Amino acid sequence: MTIPRVISLDAINFGSIITRLRVKRGYTKAKLAQRAGISSQYVAIVEQGLNVPSLTTVLDLLEVLDADGGEVFRELLVTRNTAAQ
Q1: Angle at 56 between CA 50 and CA 62, to 5 degrees
Q2: How far apart are CA 33 and CA 30, in angstroms?
Q3: What is the C-alpha to C-alpha distance for residues 29 and 82, in angstroms, rounded to an integer?
Q4: What are the pLDDT digits (tens) for 28-79?
Q5: How far is Cα 49 from Cα 45, in angstroms, rounded to an integer?
């Protein structure tokens, strides 16, 4: 897997949200990865905002974390709009 040369603020913000939700649930990266069917290394990459995950991965992570996708995306949009001002 290659690391993108351009940093995506959306990916960084999404990673922060995933980290917050994971910690709130008391999951380790390994436990989240196992339940979502991805590697713990990839969870770390997503949490650091170093990669933009596929929609399937986003949905898998949100499902495992029992997160409201609408709330997560609203938070991302608010963050994006705040940064643009």
Answers
A1: 80
A2: 5
A3: 29
A4: 999 999 999 999 999 999 999 999 999 999 999 999 999 999 999 999 999 9
A5: 6
Distance (Å, rounded) from C-alpha 2 to C-alpha 79?
26
Write down the pLDDT at residue 2: 57
* Tokens (6 digits) for 39: 């590697």
Q: How confident is the model at residue 3 (pLDDT cuts 50, 70, 90)?
A: low
Is 36 exposed, middle or buried, given 0-12, 13-18 or 19+ CB atoms closer than 10 A?
buried
Q: What are the distances in angstroms from CA 27 to CA 18, 24, 30, 48?
A: 11, 8, 8, 16
> Tokens at residue 55, please?
């929609």
The C-alpha atoms of residue 81 and residue 42 are separated, in whole angstroms, by: 27
